[in-house]
């Protein structure tokens, strides 16, 4: 249990205002809906590889516990539950948790949702821990990653994603996407983006080893896709050291 404060109240308020519209694929979270297939493709690949699972299985996470931190209204929690996991979701915004509970109930999915500081909830022993597009929004990145590490089982797998702090991400994700209305204004703070090298050091300090990052890129032909280009955004695994 940790008393460190990682939640930025203004960030929680910003995303909490989007709660009612979170599941609308054409609403304020449209970009997250477009990202979901890319994220899930990466997750399925690394989960199968890490745990030695059958890639043909439709419920590969049966018998495993999964934790999604910064879960919003459950866009990742619900697919993880359908893949067989016993899922817990945590978010800083109470409005998001209420929306997540309502949607899960409507989908007849048993997901355990909590609102609050990840380090204060006493969660541990998860086989899979995810925090996608979250670290750039927290107040204390070392404390946040330390708390995440504390929830991971000894043989567990963590998956993180984050916008990279590059000139391209400033131009396209902040100045472009927000001005064009593709994401709500104030969603991105470029100076809080984390580079892969910085994340590797932060994870090392938390007792974790970072895998090889994959880029999440965009092209007119493919749309959002996994790529070797890390300039805009990347997704990566982490495992316990030793």
Count of alpha and pi helical runs: 7
CATH architecture: 3-Layer(aba) Sandwich
Largest sheet: 9 strands, mixed
Order of helical and strand elements: HHEHEHEEHEHHEEEE
Number of strands: 9
* CATH secondary-structure class: Alpha Beta
Poorly predicted runs of 5 or more residues: none
Query: How many domains make up the coordinates?
Result: 1
CATH homologous superfamily descriptor: Vaccinia Virus protein VP39
Structural class: alpha/beta
Helix share, percent: 25-40%
Question: In the CATH scheme, what's the topology name?
Answer: Rossmann fold
Shape: globular
Query: Overall pLDDT, averaged?
Result: 91
Binned strand content: 15-25%
How far is the N terminus from the C terminus? 23 Å
As a whole number of angstroms, the C-alpha radius of gyration is 17 Å
Q: Which oligomerization state do the chains in this entry correspond to? A: single chain
């Amino acid at each position: 249990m940790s008393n460190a404060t990682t939640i930025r109240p203004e960030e929680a308020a910003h995303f909490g205002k989007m709660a009612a519209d979170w599941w609308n694929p054409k609403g304020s979270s449209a970009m997250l809906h477009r990202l979901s297939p890319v994220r899930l493709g990466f997750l399925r690949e690394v989960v199968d590889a890490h745990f030695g699972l059958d890639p043909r299985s439709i419920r590969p996470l049966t018998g495993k516990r999964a934790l999604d931190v910064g879960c919003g209204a459950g866009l990742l929690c619900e697919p993880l539950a359908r893949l067989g996991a016993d899922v817990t979701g945590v978010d800083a915004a109470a409005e998001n948790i209420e929306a997540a509970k309502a949607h899960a109930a409507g989908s007849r999915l048993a997901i355990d949702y909590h609102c609050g500081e990840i380090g204060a909830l006493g969660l541990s022993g998860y086989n899979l821990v995810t925090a996608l597009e979250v670290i750039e929004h927290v107040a204390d990145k070392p404390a946040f990653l330390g708390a995440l590490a504390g929830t991971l089982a000894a043989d567990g797998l963590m998956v993180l994603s984050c916008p990279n702090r590059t000139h391209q991400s400033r131009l396209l994700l902040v100045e472009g996407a927000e001005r064009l209305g593709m994401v709500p204004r104030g969603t991105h703070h470029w100076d809080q983006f984390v580079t892969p090298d910085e994340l590797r050091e932060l994870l090392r300090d938390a007792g974790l080893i970072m895998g090889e990052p994959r880029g999440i890129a965009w092209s007119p032909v493919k749309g959002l896709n996994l790529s070797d280009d890390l300039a805009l955004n990347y997704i990566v695994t982490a495992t316990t050291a030793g």
